[in-house]
Specification:
alpha/beta, 7-stranded mixed β-sheet, single chain, binds flavin-adenine dinucleotide, NADP, 18 helices, 34% helix, oxidoreductase, 18 strands, FAD/NAD(P)-binding domain, Rossmann fold, flavoprotein, 6-stranded parallel β-sheet, Ferredox_Rdtase_adrenod
């Protein structure tokens, strides 16, 4: 028998576990999927926006995998922490596949990021998604009239949409009650989503972008002068040569180029060619706005500063300029790329494949691609593991790893515990007159999981 630990129950971990048990080359593989959280599914539960129910429903197919009798879910088990080192884990299993994601946000690196009211989009997403690490976050939304979101990817679009969306449309989602309440009391009327580069260079997908224009009670606008700065905007030949997504994005943005605000209660402005320079604050330490330098295309796909500045009022600033991996104690880490060095999924230590250690998902290739991209990524890794399986399986293991985890003081949440959390979330929703509602804190989750 080959006993494998998969660390992380997000898409890449679940796809790795599925590939391991469904393949036929190496019979008798058993997989434990460990996660530091009591709840499975990684960013599908704690990142994908609550109003994107179709994508959220992918949890159903991840669930089917985790219910396979050859797979055990062990939540509330942190690897690389005080109680369980990477070395100890490798003693307990023939192989370990690290699928721990890339959950840290990048800073802008400009003055004022410490001001009250400046947050990462990661923190905001975690808060409205009910991530237990974000339970103590405070977003003073009643005091906000204008918000700035810095970034031009789908996460920037997500947080812009959630800020502008009415709570009547969010109430049917599983958003935690405190977040829903705070958004219901929000004073936000204007959201500026600001990009350093041009409209044809946005990293958002067209479906997500277009959705902004469908929000009830929300005007969306772009500045025709900023669109026109983009060299491909007025050049049909250059526009035709763009990738299809960029071409479609440009058409959507063109449709929003207008004379100015309409009369909707909320307005989203999509701004381009503005480089963050400084976050401005008042004497009370709260953010009051953001200073940008206007940029211009430099002729080779980049932008250059023009020395012209623009200030945008804001009582809330969310930065969404990319994710990065976090080093896991005991695993090698490439701090330049924010990933674990690997060759076809085999973890490299000092340039050589480390016996029995593998990596998949965002921590392997960086924070790119959609959920489905993690499937071929996990398959490549598992294929390497299976090639090594003959040598790996020769080692005798000390017994059931669950006993060793408990002996180390860990209290794993097993699948019935997770089902109990789900049932408690359904009960909570019923008591609030809503569908299932997430429990947003550690105590609540572990309490709902029952005796561990
Ligand atoms: C805000 C946001 C919204 C997104 N929306 C979409 C979308 O709508 N559609 C789409 O296709 N893609 C979306 N994505 C991308 C998608 O979520 C990722 O491609 C995918 O989740 C990456 O999978 P992963 O398994 O590598 O990492 P993750 O999903 O992050 O899973 C990593 C898991 O590892 C666990 N873990 C971390 N450290 C440890 C440790 N030390 N010990 C034990 N466990 C640990 C974590 O708790 C987590 O459960 C979104 C991403 C973000 C950030």
């Amino acid at each position: 028998m080959l006993r494998v630990a998969v660390v992380g129950s997000g898409p890449s971990g679940v796809y790795a576990a599925q590939t391991l048990v469904q393949q036929r080359e190496v019979p008798g593989v058993r997989v434990d999927v460990l996660d530091r959280l009591p709840a499975p599914y990684g960013l599908v539960r704690y990142g994908v926006a609550p109003d994107h129910e179709k994508i959220k429903s992918l949890q159903g197919s991840l669930r089917t995998v985790l219910e396979d009798e050859r797979i055990r879910f062990l939540g509330n088990v942190e690897v690389g922490g005080e109680r369980l080192s990477t070395g100890r884990l490798l003693e307990l299993y023939h192989a370990v596949v690290y699928c721990v994601g890339a959950a840290r946000d990048r800073m802008l690196g400009i003055p004022g990021e410490e001001l009250i009211g400046v947050h990462s989009a990661t923190a905001f997403v975690s808060w409205y998604s009910g991530h237990p690490d974000a339970a103590a976050e405070v977003f003073d939304l009643p005091g906000v009239d204008s918000a700035v979101v810095v970034g031009a990817g789908n996460v920037a679009v997500d947080v812009t949409r959630i800020l502008a969306r009415g709570t009547a449309e969010l109430a049917p989602t599983d958003m935690p009650q405190p977040a829903l309440g705070a958004l219901a009391d929000s004073g936000v009327r204007r959201v500026a989503m600001v990009a350093r580069r041009g409209p044809s260079q946005g990293r958002f997908t067209t479906k997500e972008l277009r959705e902004l224009g469908t929000l009830p009670g929300v005007d969306v606008g772009t500045d025709p002068a900023e669109l026109a700065l983009d060299p491909v905007y007025a050049d049909p030949v250059a526009a035709a040569a763009l990738p299809a997504v960029a071409r479609r994005n440009l058409e959507v943005l063109r449709g929003w180029a207008g004379p100015g605000p309409g009369d909707a209660p909320r307005r989203i402005a999509l701004r381009f060619y503005l480089r963050p320079m400084e976050i401005l604050g008042g004497p009370d330490g709260r953010v009051t706005g953001m200073r940008f330098e206007r940029t211009a295309p430099d002729g080779s796909g980049g932008v250059t500063g023009t020395g012209v500045h623009e200030d945008i009022d804001a009582q809330l600033v969310l930065r969404s300029v990319g994710y990065r991996g976090v080093p896991l104690a005991g695993l090698p880490f490439d701090s330049g790329r924010g990933t674990v060095p690997h060759a076809a999924g085999r973890v490299l230590r000092a340039g050589r494949a480390s016996v029995g250690e593998y990596v998949a998902g965002w921590i392997k290739r960086g924070p790119t691609g959609v959920i489905g991209t993690n499937r071929p990524c996990a398959k490549e890794t598992v294929s390497s593991l299976l090639q090594d399986a003959g040598a790996l399986a020769r080692r005798d293991l000390p017994g059931d790893p669950l006993d060793a985890l408990r002996a180390a003081g860990l209290r794993p949440v097993r699948w019935p515990g997770w089902l109990a959390i789900e049932a408690a979330e359904a009960d909570l929703g019923r008591s609030l007159g809503r569908r299932s509602v997430k429990i947003p804190d550690w105590q609540g989750l572990l309490g709902a999981a029952g005796p561990l």
